[in-house]
């Protein structure tokens, strides 16, 4: 999620779950290919399995960016056809591409040629503006399938490109889970994931009775423990011991130590950990101490020890 997640967030989420697939925030192909912003591809090996999400609409540029991702060992390359922000519309990226399925097909064909064995996937909406999702989504999926795509993540609401802010576009257009479930029934051969408004692991499990996958955005960020800590056991039937919240904090000690020793700020990592005690005693104090102190020069893992709820310190 742009401006929210980064490699530090993914490392922390991986502490909580070994098997869930983690996605990068959208990285635009022009930033990589024309801007040379190669640092955007950096990640830690512990983050696997990790998918790079690309934004763009130029097949050649997306192919080049895909090659860079594959060279760096990403497990999947995903094309964003869901982001509604103005910035992104101006570059013809994201949700507006729902209106150009042939261009999307050309993009993913170019990406697949560059990706070799690494899967190329697409994240999309159910439609944009005045499109009828019941017409547009089936056609869009059929077009992707004809282009060789086998895995799609569907944000189960339209994006309204005029008049709504990106934030409003994540809440105001109504969710249509039923339509997405019907797409799965129509395409047993595709791996289809559902996204949007799924706020608990229980709700994710319900969708998994129908769908192949569930993508969780905001809830995973704000309540990472509640979404991720038991996901390996419940979703993947892997008997990983569930870490306590405190153990998850201490599992970050070496990573944080190395980050700070290399000149990084503590808060760059801990800002993603503020929600670990969400709903628990001491949650507010934890957040306050880390938010107040994490930016200070010299702040180290000791601040997390100080901030831990008392029974765990
Ligand atoms: C701050 C923020 C940034 C986002 N950035 C991206 C992004 O880079 N790529 C993407 O596919 N979706 C992005 N999204 C959308 C989420 O991935 C997700 O589709 C949306 O929030 C609905 O799912 P949720 O209710 O589980 O959060 C972003 C959402 C937020 C809140």
TrEMBL record:
EC number(s) on file: 1.3.1.91
Domain of life: Bacteria
Active site: 83
Record-listed FMN binding positions: 53, 123, 155, 195-197, 217-218
Family matches, as Pfam families: Dus (PF01207)
Keyword annotations: Flavoprotein, FMN, NADP, Oxidoreductase, RNA-binding, tRNA processing, tRNA-binding
UniProt cross-references to NCBIfam families, sorted A to Z: PRK11815.1, yjbN
Protein name: tRNA-dihydrouridine(20/20a) synthase
Organism: Celeribacter arenosi
Gene behind this protein: dusA
